[in-house]
Every structure is written in structure tokens, then in C-alpha cells.
Amino acid sequence: MSRSDDLKSAKRQKEQEIKSWEKRKEQVQDILMAVRNDFDGEIDKVNRKLADIAEQQENGFIGFSHIESVSVRIRTEKEKSTYSDLCMSDVSDQLSQDIRETEEKINGLRQDISNLNGQIQAAEAEEAEARRKALEEMFAKLTGQG
Predict the structure, then answer these.
(1) For 108-125, what is each residue's pLDDT tens digit?
(2) Which residues contact 109 (CB under 8 A, 6 or more apart)?
(3) Phi and psi for 144 in degrees, rounded to 5?
(4) pLDDT for res 71
(5) Per-residue pLDDT for 145 more than 60?
(6) What is the 3-state secondary structure (H, E, C) of 53-77?
(7) Helix or strand or coil: residue 47?
(8) Closest by CA position to 43, among listed 16, 83, 100
(9) For residue 19, is it within any domain?
(10) Any domain includes 53
(11) Is residue 63 part of a domain?
(12) What is the domain extent for residue 109?
């Protein structure tokens, strides 16, 4: 095998690694979106239920100031987003970190491929030059000029 063939094989291996890392990145992104969407959907349900409870209390106990204050408190104690829940925020941050690290791996592999492309071109040029010289020498021997 020639040097350029070895380099091309290394390039193909790097390209396969990129595909594998891109698949992982896509899977982690899907998980992150599912976590955020599912949790935010549950938050919306809880908040709607809290608003319904507060409204029912207000309608059922009109004029009772202590009930009205409970209703106000219920309305202000709404669930927050994924980012304000510490556990969910940690999960989200870890998944986001994994995505960033995966992107760094992919970018590093792309840089490796770019470097390999330059090495392949140089190796092919050297091999072509070596073949040209060998042909010239063979031609010179055959024609008696060598």
C-alpha cells in the first residue's frame, strides 16, 4: 500500500467517526428537547390547574379577605420553567455540555480530515513524481540513453 492509500484510509476512518459523533449529538439533542418540552408541558398543566383553583376559590368565597389572599398566593406560586427547577436545570446543563463536547470532537475530526487532505495531495504528488522518474529511467534504459 502506498502512503497516499494509508492516508486515505485514515481519512475514511475519521469520516466514519464524524458520522458516529453526529449521530450521538442528534440523539442527545433529541433527549434535551424532549426533557424540556415534556417538563414545560407539565408546568403548563400545573399552572392552569392552579389558576382554576384560585378562580374557583374567588368565585365561591367572594368577600372573604383571607380566602382572597389565599387565591393571590396560589396565583403567585406558579411553577417556573425548566431552567428555574434546579434538578431539571442540572439535567439540561449536562446534556448541553455533552452537545458542546460532541461538537468539539466533530470539529477536531474535521480539522484532522482537512490536514489529511493536504497530506494526501502531497503524497500523491510525490508518488506521481516517483512514477514519472521511474518511467523516464525505464525509457532511457530501453532506448539506450541510460
Answers:
(1) 999 999 999 999 999 999
(2) 14, 17, 18, 21
(3) 80, 15
(4) 66
(5) yes
(6) HHHHHHHHCCCCHHHHHHHHHHHHC
(7) helix
(8) 83
(9) yes
(10) no
(11) no
(12) 3-38+81-143
Q: Are 92 and 32 within 8 A, CB to CB? A: yes
Cell of 48: 392552569
Q: CA of 32: how far to CAs of 35, 92, 93, 129, in Å? A: 5, 6, 9, 53
Q: How many domains does the chain have?
A: 1
Q: Is residue 58 part of a domain?
A: no
Is 29 buried (19+), middle (13-18) or exposed (0-12) by CB count in 10 A? middle
Which residue type is seen at 90? D
Label residue 93 exposed, middle or buried (CB < 10 Å: 0-12, 13-18, 19+). Answer: exposed
State residue 89's pLDDT score.
79
33 Cβ neighbours under 8 A, 6+ residues apart: none
Say which amino acid occupies 129: E
Residue 69: predicted pLDDT: 72
Residue 71, judged by CB atoms within 10 A of its CB (0-12, 13-18, 19+), counts as buried
Q: What is the pLDDT of residues 32-75, one digit of tens each?
A: 998 888 887 777 888 788 788 777 777 777 666 666 677 667 66
Residue 85: its H or E element: none
Here the cell at position 23 is 449521530
C-alpha cell recorded at residue 36: 424540556
